[in-house]
Amino acid sequence: MTNILLYALVVLIWGSTWIAITFQLGEVPTAWSLVYRFALACAALFAWAYIRRIPLRLSAHQHPMVALQGIFMFCINYALIYQGTQYVTSGLVAVLFTALMFFNLVNERLFFGTPFSLRVVTAALLGFTGIVLVFWPELDGLGAGGEPLIGALLVLAGALSASLGNMAAIRNTREQMSVITLSAWGMLYGTALLTFYALVQGQAPGFDTRPPYVLSLLYLSIPGTALAFGFYLALIRRIGASRAAYSNILFPLVALGLSTAFEGYRWSLWAVIGIALALAGNALALTRRRAQPAAIAAAEGAGLKPAVAQAQAQDRAAEMETEAAAQTAAQKSRSPNEKTPP
Fold first, then answer.
1. Were both Cys, which of 89, 153, 187, 293 would link to 138 (CB 3.0–4.6 Å)?
2. Is the pLDDT of residue 226 over 90?
């Protein structure tokens, strides 16, 4: 599966979960809805691994980092953002969560020594500006009292938690673990902590048996969590966390498209300009240096069409850049007396 297809699937699935989440709000406490969502996704991943005979065993030193990824990515992140949405509008949540791109840039630099790229920073600024313009009518509520500020800080904290989960994912994917194995165990740890969080809040674990709740829960659990997180982790492995995070710019745009079709959303000139900037930022973030002719020739020699050969050669070039950055960071982290293995 090509990087572009993975990216498109992540955007389309997570962009459509916004509408599904609206059917989860109501009788069932939010914390328990999250527990049900991740528990079902976790069970589906373990079942799939069993059916496909995918190894699920992790070593003793791998479990702590996988648990860290699960707690930051599948628990703290969602708990903080769901809490934040009680105080601010969904548009402001969409704008604030784009901070994930900047958190990833800084954290990759701090944890792995990944250098800043002018292209990547410019793309982040374009995407952020675009999302601000799209949701500009909803942003004037931030200064109206203390609650919007509390909500904004909670969402930003959620984005930071997601970024730390991304950093753990970078570390874990370099262990050559299967994405299914990584997602299944990470969700298990995250679901366990979410269950503890729900119990501490003193909320009874209710359930809504009506079709809208059940069907939306199934959609959020299987495509919206089990599949989407698997695709996203594969993207992190292939193109890095900074570039994978640009998909967050397009989620609300997909949601707006669905809202136009089903909820009568009306577009403004600023929204159109904002979408153009967001798309330009994504295009800038995802474009790469032209693949070397030798790589393309090798792919064509394997019987691929020129266009397919070009795409696969570019994907491999991106993977090699990511691997080179990982090796550089690993070499820097070695002690002076440690020898490089042959």
1. 89
2. yes
CA distance 70 to 208: 27
- For 300: left if phi > 0, alpha if psi spans -120 to 50, otherwise beta; the answer is alpha
**C-alpha torsion 313→182→222→17, nearest 10:** -70
All residues at 6 or more sequence positions from 251 whose CB lies less than 8 Å from its CB, including other chains = 11, 14, 15, 18, 94
Residue whose C-alpha is closest to residue 213's, from 28, 14, 15: 28
| pLDDT for residue 338 is more than 70 | no
d(CA 106, CA 171): 16
What's the CA gap between 35 and 16, in Å, rounded?
20
The whole-number pLDDT of residue 141 equals 54
Which residues, other chains included, contact 269 with Cβ-Cβ below 8 Å and sequence gap of 6+?
none
Assessment of whether the complete model's pTM goes beyond 0.90: no
Residue 151: CB partners within 8 Å, gap ≥ 6? 84, 85, 86, 87, 88, 92
Burial of 324 (0-12, 13-18, 19+ CB in 10 A): exposed
The first and second tokens of residue 97, run together, are 């969560």
* Beta carbons of 4 and 243 less than 8 angstroms apart: no
Distance (Å, whole) CA 13 – CA 101:
19
Task: Please say if the pLDDT value at position 154 is more than 50.
Answer: yes
For the chain, give every domain's residue range.
3-287, 291-328
For range 30-54, the mean pLDDT: 94
